[in-house]
Backbone:
């Protein structure tokens, strides 16, 4: 019996992989105030699950495609000048609702909807693990490759133009990596909590970071240790795994913010 | 030779002509202020100077060693991105630590190098933007409403710093501003723009010009029209800018 046969080890490795992909991307989501962007894309993934099952595609592929379509739609809409929160809210929740309805239409396949909504990290296979780690490497690699241009266009679009950087192109990279991350994370934390894995570790890292790189690395550390501690808790006190991970991340958010508040006094 | 010279420049966005027949030369070391109501083409004129818009007609001649530093309208940098002033300056041009310190010194904010950008006041941040523009040691500095949103002492300080920079580096300074009384007193030359150049000259000449008064009212200048200057165009009934409306602002 090899080490990776153990479901707990696979779960922990999957959680850490997702945390590493989510950290730099989540930092950009926090810096650019695009929480809605992560939310809407994650919700659309349920529609992707339905599509994959109907067309007998791999779930990863279906989710990436639908998430990408949603992320592009949200990006285009958010460029308009007037407040788009309402339309974004409508999009986000209708994608979720249509996804849930569509899944219910698929007969013959008995699927556990809860697994896609809240994740099923304890059922991660070796193949899933390979996909998660390859995907995470692709996301981190892509963001690292465009790091400087992404940072400048996040600071200000005007600065980007002045430095001959196309902020729309950089935004597209975030859109693409978001779609991949959503597809990686659906099995680990589920569609409803993907946005939490993006935002909470990054937000927890913010008050204790002095540079953008430090924030991304700390977010990865916080996310990975949340996955580790959350899974152990889930194992010991028998709680749902995905939500337990997010709960631990939320505690670390409270902790770093309290520490930074206290040190400013 | 002038640093940059515009000859009968016209710029249009589609069918919308924003600048008509603008001729203008900027020489080393002078401070030139552009005033004009919203939509009068001030920012477009800047873009033409920088070379980011193509003129519909006319000519732009740049001196071979022309190097433009640009301070944009106040940027809004989110407070969620942790970054120090030094890094903020260096990330854009891969500048050395030394040139970064020099630029900060010229902008009068050497002590802010290690501060977080999110902790800066509005005035401090504008100086950081000034330092950023000074990094390439420009001989022409463009300021686009650089003091918007600053309080009066803040913007007065800022303009004093600009004056100092000009003295030290002998660069030309072109600024767009709505703070007429502050800007005018510091300028060698003022151009009143409203799609075309309405009038230009020393601050005294411009403030006394009837066209300037029609645009901005008499409150800011106050002097009587004792000075003469040459009007480069005539207003007839076809004139498409409505001076009376703007003067009510």
Residues:
């Amino acid at each position: 019996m090899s080490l990776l046969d153990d479901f707990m080890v696979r779960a922990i490795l999957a959680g850490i992989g997702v945390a590493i992909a989510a950290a730099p991307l989540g930092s950009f989501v926090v810096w650019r105030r695009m929480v809605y962007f992560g939310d809407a894309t994650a919700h659309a993934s349920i529609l992707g699950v339905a599509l994959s099952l109907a067309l007998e595609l791999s779930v990863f592929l279906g989710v990436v495609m639908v998430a990408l379509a949603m992320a592009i739609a949200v990006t285009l809409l958010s460029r308009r000048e007037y407040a788009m929160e309402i339309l974004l809210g409508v999009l986000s929740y209708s994608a979720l609702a249509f996804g849930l309805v569509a899944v219910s239409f698929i007969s013959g396949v008995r699927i556990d909807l809860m697994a896609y909504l809240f994740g099923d990290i304890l059922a991660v296979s070796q193949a899933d693990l390979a996909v998660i780690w390859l995907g995470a490497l692709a996301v981190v690699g892509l963001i690292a490759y465009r790091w400087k241009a992404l940072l400048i266009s996040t600071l200000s679009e005007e600065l980007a133009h002045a430095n001959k950087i196309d902020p729309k192109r950089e935004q597209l990279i975030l859109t693409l990596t978001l779609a991949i991350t959503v597809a990686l994370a659906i099995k680990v934390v589920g569609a409803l909590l993907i946005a939490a894995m993006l935002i909470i570790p990054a937000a927890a890292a913010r008050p204790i970071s002095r540079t953008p790189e430090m924030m991304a690395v700390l977010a990865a550390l916080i996310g990975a240790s949340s996955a580790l501690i959350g899974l152990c808790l889930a194992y010991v006190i028998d709680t749902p795994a995905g939500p337990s991970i997010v709960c631990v991340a939320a505690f670390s958010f409270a902790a770093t913010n309290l520490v930074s508040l206290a040190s400013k006094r | 030779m002038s640093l940059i010279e515009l000859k009968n420049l016209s710029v249009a966005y589609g069918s919308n002509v924003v600048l008509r027949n603008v001729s203008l030369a900027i020489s080393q070391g002078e401070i030139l202020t552009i005033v004009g109501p919203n939509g009068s083409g001030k920012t477009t004129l800047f873009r033409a100077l920088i070379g980011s818009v193509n003129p519909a007609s006319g000519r732009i001649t740049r001196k071979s060693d022309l190097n433009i530093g640009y301070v944009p309208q106040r940027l809004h940098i989110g407070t969620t991105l942790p970054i120090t002033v030094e890094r903020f300056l260096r990330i854009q041009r891969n500048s050395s630590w030394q040139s970064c310190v020099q630029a900060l010194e010229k902008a009068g904010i050497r002590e802010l190098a290690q501060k977080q950008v999110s902790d800066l006041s509005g005035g401090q941040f504008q100086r950081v933007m000034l330092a950023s523009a000074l990094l390439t040691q420009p001989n022409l500095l463009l300021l686009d409403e650089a003091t918007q949103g600053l309080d009066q002492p803040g913007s007065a300080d800022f303009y004093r710093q600009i004056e100092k920079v000009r003295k030290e580096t002998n660069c030309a300074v072109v600024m767009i501003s709505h703070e007429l009384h502050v800007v005018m007193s510091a300028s060698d030359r003022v151009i009143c723009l409203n799609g075309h150049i309405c009038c230009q000259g020393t601050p005294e000449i411009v403030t006394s010009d009837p066209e300037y008064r029609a645009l901005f009212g008499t409150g800011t200048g106050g002097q009587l029209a004792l000075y003469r200057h040459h009007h480069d165009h005539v207003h007839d009934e076809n004139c498409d800018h409505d001076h009376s409306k703007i003067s009510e602002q």
